[in-house]
Specification:
Strands 13, 14, 15, 16, 17 and 18 form a six-stranded antiparallel β-sheet that branches. The two termini are about 30 Å apart. Helix content is about 5%, strand content about 45%. By secondary structure, it is mostly beta strands. The chain has four helices and 31 strands. About 45% of the residues are buried. The protein has one domain: Prolyl oligopeptidase, N-terminal domain (Methylamine Dehydrogenase, Chain H, 7 Propeller), CATH 2.130.10. Keywords: Signal. This is DUF4374 domain-containing protein. InterPro entries: DUF4374 (IPR025401).
């Protein structure tokens, strides 16, 4: 795989449609045996990383690790090469999709022998820009709407490995203007899909990302029905900027008590996308489909800087990266714990400032509700896993991901 292809590998856990599966599944990675085990009955687990190696012709690998607190992993020792850039983990399976017009996707699984292997046949789909897991058995992907103005969505059955529905939406109808709604994420909220967006008018003949932006000082979320994937309405707020960013796949989270929190950098990429609003967190109360005007957590006022990225840990606490220089949207970031119950910010100790990621933070939230594992590239270009305690706001450096140029995905599979 050429490096130009791998350059786009940046943290999207990805989008794909499998129209069918192998008629005969397997228990071992060499292809012997049959069966598709129920994840709930599996007792062993392994962390999995997706990363591209260094060098002009470096490949991308899925690599497993039993322990992330120490040691190192290498793609040359226990990695499986994949021709893909985006990945989603659902139903104990990694779905890997290449970034081109056909979007070929291949599923991978860990088998009884502890090795990673192909779980079904490769099937083509289309170039996808947003995705999100739904329940424990499905996920939804959406096409790149920046130039076309037509939003395509598909629903994927991750148990039976098949397409389960597909729709198209006129994105100008969502905005009610001559601008398209450009999706910046896709998130399940109860039995709906919440899709934040910004307004964008493509320049005819220009590149896909060239055009005029609108609504930088507003928050917009399109609500879609599930499983029908039909647009229902838009909800908005004017206290911060738009949520998420292109392909970042972060910005909305429904937590344990049913409330929904959404956060905005209030600043996209480049001068033309700066917002006059502060960077902060808004809320939608359980059972409501509108923003709670009584709640606004001004992260910019609390930290003196803009939010870069965020991910949920548990129990009302988020891991967030904020820029080290006020009002900037590039360069170094530091890590904080944002407590949305008490509107409190605590800087994480034990993890150095480092370059901001371009797309999604590469994390895995453990099931204890307080631990989140974060993959960070240091100033020497090496990648390490930092184990962060959300209650004490402390971090410990663990596993070294050897020979990585970029790490794009991180999760855990059972076998």
């Amino acid at each position: 795989m050429k490096k130009t292809t791998n350059f786009l590998l940046t943290g999207m856990l990805g989008m794909a449609v499998l129209l069918g599966a192998c008629s005969k599944d397997k228990n071992t990675s060499d292809g012997s045996g049959t069966g598709n085990p129920d994840p709930g009955k599996l007792t062993r687990s392994k962390y999995v990383f997706v990363y591209t190696g260094k060098g002009d012709n470096a490949a991308t690998y899925i690599v497993g690790a039993d322990d992330i607190t120490k040691g190192g992993i290498s793609s040359t020792k226990n990695g499986v090469e994949v021709d893909a850039y985006s990945f989603v983990v659902q139903n104990n399976t990694v779905f890997a999709q290449a970034y081109n017009e056909q979007g070929p996707v291949t599923p991978y699984r860990i088998y009884d022998d502890g090795k990673i292997g192909v779980a079904g046949r490769t099937v083509t789909t289309f170039r996808t820009g947003v995705y999100g897991k739904v329940n424990n058995d499905s996920w939804v992907g959406g096409g790149d709407p920046r130039s076309s103005g037509v939003g395509e969505l598909f629903r994927f059955d991750a148990v039976n490995l098949q397409l389960a529905g597909r729709t198209t939406t006129d994105l100008k109808k969502i905005t009610g203007t001559g601008f398209n709604a450009v999706w910046t994420g896709l998130f399940q909220v109860n039995n709906k899909l919440y899709m934040p967006y910004y307004k964008f008018k493509h320049t005819p003949g220009g590149r896909v990302y060239e055009g005029e932006y609108g609504s930088l000082d507003s928050t917009w979320v399109a609500v879609f029905s599930y499983p029908e994937l039909k647009y229902e309405k838009t909800i908005g707020d004017d206290r911060t900027g738009f949520i998420g960013d292109w392909s970042s796949q972060q910005g909305v989270q429904q937590i344990e008590n049913g409330d929904v929190y959404a956060w905005s950098t209030a600043m996209g990429d480049g001068e033309q996308r700066r917002s006059a609003r502060p960077s902060g967190i808004v809320r939608i109360k359980k059972g409501a489909e509108q923003f709670d005007k009584s709640y606004f957590f001004n992260i910019e006022a609390a930290t003196g800087a803009k939010i870069s990225r965020g991910e949920y840990i548990g129990n009302g606490k988020f891991l967030m990266s904020v820029y080290t220089v006020p009002k900037e949207n590039e360069g170094k970031v530091k890590m904080i714990i944002a407590d949305v119950f008490n509107n409190k910010v605590t800087e994480v100790k034990g993890i150095p400032s480092h370059d901001a990621v371009r797309f999604k933070m590469v994390v895995y939230a453990e099931s204890d509700g307080k631990t989140i594992d974060y993959v960070m590239q240091d100033d020497s270009g090496e990648y390490y896993v930092y184990i962060i305690n959300g209650e004490t706001a402390t971090a410990t450096r663990g596993l070294h991901i050897e020979g990585a140029e970029v790490v794009t995905a991180f999760s855990k599979l059972k076998y």
